[in-house]
């Protein structure tokens, strides 16, 4: 048996799509020319163009995504089989099909009992009491939920974080001057794989029902491409991801700036951009505080406490975030710092919030407080302070 098994495998894909028993299909055992491509995962997605086949191309260090009509999808699979990919695994609610292609396109097709008894639900079961629907396509494409909308065991912490973030942001917007706005312009600095960016867009657009323009910025081109593919497939028309550095980004006219876990002083760059653009709300969750620790000269009265590395590290973290908060206050924001989510779920858990005040305030007094703290610890440089002073 050779090409016959490949044809049978392809016809089973077409049949399962026609009979609506298709669950998912993977192509593996890649032997093509791309040194990094490893496998392709396909599943169904419901879009305005109807039900389509979504392809996730898994590379060694990144993923890319595309969706196609069912016929085009089958054609692509046909072109790949026996040329680039030498194994296929089709899951339908009737059977599993395992295709293995050997030398000279000799192949074997094993047919087994189905792993999945039910086909994936492509409809969102959204209700107003739920912030994020685990059946959302972007959560499946980003690997947070399974095809049937279950939260993957390893993604439980991420899931909690996404929900907590959306809840927190919603409360902040409700308590701010933005509460009446019918359209929100949001920027996410250091958007990474976009979990929080997608959820934020989805929540404000589809649950709150306002217009949202959201841009994610990151230095990793591969993540930018993947997120743009998923945003397109999700038909999130005003969500886009752009490649770039936070400090280079030309930011104008923004309501909300978020920067979650942006590394080290990238958080300062983001806060600075938000202040300059007069963002009404600045929401950051800093990570890896590396700038201040080596500068601290322990004051005499603190020497016996800060001689312990862990205490110095915590002190440096507190001073860094405390200074960021004071610098926001100096620029006319009221601030809060709180634990965003318990350390059980993530070690990066401080959240700094700045809400632009409308009242007059005494910035001179705050500037003095900032300088007193820097002098007390012998701190010469704090990135946000330097940026603000250079204006
Ligand atoms: C730890 S990830 C966090 C991703 C996402 N915000 C989250 O919380 O899930 C940090 C991201 O910030 C990006 N990043 C770090 N420094 C940056 C800079 N200066 N400009 C743009 N992106 C930056 C990194 O590429 C990375 O994707």
Describe this structure as you would to a colleague.
The structure is a single chain. With 391 residues, this protein is an alpha/beta fold. It has 2 domains: 110 residues, no CATH class; 253 residues, 3-Layer(aba) Sandwich (Rossmann fold). Helices cover 35% and strands 27% of the residues. The chain has 11 helices and 14 strands. The strands form 2 sheets. The protein has a 7-stranded antiparallel sheet with strand order 4-3-2-1-5-6-7, with helices on both faces. Strands 10-9-8-11-12-14-13 form a 7-stranded mixed sheet, with helices on both faces. The longest helix has 22 residues. The chain is elongated and about 80 Å long. The protein starts with a helix and ends with a helix. The relative contact order is 0.09. The mean pLDDT is 91. The structure holds S-adenosylmethionine.
Taken together, the total number of domains comes to 2
**Number of separate helices:** 11
Radius of gyration: 25 Å
The ligands found in this model are: S-adenosylmethionine
* Percent helix range: 25-40%
Distance between the termini: 74 Å
How are the strands ordered across the major sheet?
Answer: 4-3-2-1-5-6-7
What is the averaged pLDDT score?
Answer: 91
CATH architectural group of the largest domain: 3-Layer(aba) Sandwich
């Amino acid at each position: 048996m050779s090409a016959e098994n490949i044809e049978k495998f392809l016809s089973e894909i077409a049949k399962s799509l026609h009979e609506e028993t298709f669950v998912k299909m993977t192509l593996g055992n890649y032997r093509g020319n791309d040194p990094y491509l490893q496998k392709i995962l396909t599943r169904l997605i419901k879009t305005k163009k109807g039900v389509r086949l979504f392809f996730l191309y898994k590379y060694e260090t990144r993923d890319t995504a595309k969706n196609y009509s069912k016929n085009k999808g089958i054609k692509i699979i046909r072109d790949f089989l026996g040329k680039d990919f030498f194994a296929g695994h089709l899951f339908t609610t009737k059977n599993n099909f395992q295709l293995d292609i050997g030398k000279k396109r000799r192949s074997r097709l094993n047919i087994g009992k189905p792993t999945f008894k039910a086909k994936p639900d492509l409809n969102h079961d959204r209700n107003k009491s739920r912030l994020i629907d685990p059946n959302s396509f972007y959560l499946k494409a980003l690997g947070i939920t399974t095809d049937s909308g279950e939260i993957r065991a390893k993604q439980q912490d991420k899931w909690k974080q996404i929900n907590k973030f959306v809840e927190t942001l919603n409360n902040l917007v409700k308590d701010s001057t933005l509460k009446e706005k019918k359209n929100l312009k949001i920027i996410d600095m250091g958007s990474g794989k976009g979990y929080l960016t997608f959820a934020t867009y989805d929540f404000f657009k589809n649950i709150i029902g306002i217009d949202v323009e959201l841009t994610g910025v990151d230095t990793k081109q591969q993540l930018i491409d993947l997120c743009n593919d998923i945003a397109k497939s999700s038909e999130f028309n005003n969500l886009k991801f752009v490649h770039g550095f936070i400090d280079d980004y030309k930011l104008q006219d923004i309501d909300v700036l978020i920067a979650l876990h942006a590394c080290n002083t990238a958080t300062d760059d983001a806060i600075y951009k938000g202040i300059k653009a007069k963002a009404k709300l600045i929401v950051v969750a800093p990570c890896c505080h590396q700038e201040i620790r080596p500068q601290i000269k322990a004051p005499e009265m603190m020497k016996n406490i800060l001689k312990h590395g862990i205490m110095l590290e915590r002190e440096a973290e507190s001073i860094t975030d405390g200074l960021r908060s004071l610098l926001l206050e100096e620029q006319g924001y009221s601030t809060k710092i709180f634990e965003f989510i318990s350390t059980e779920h993530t070690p990066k858990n401080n959240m700094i919030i700045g809400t632009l005040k409308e009242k007059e305030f005494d910035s001179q007094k705050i500037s003095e407080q900032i300088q007193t703290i820097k002098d007390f610890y012998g701190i010469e440089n704090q990135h946000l302070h330097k940026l603000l002073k250079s204006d």
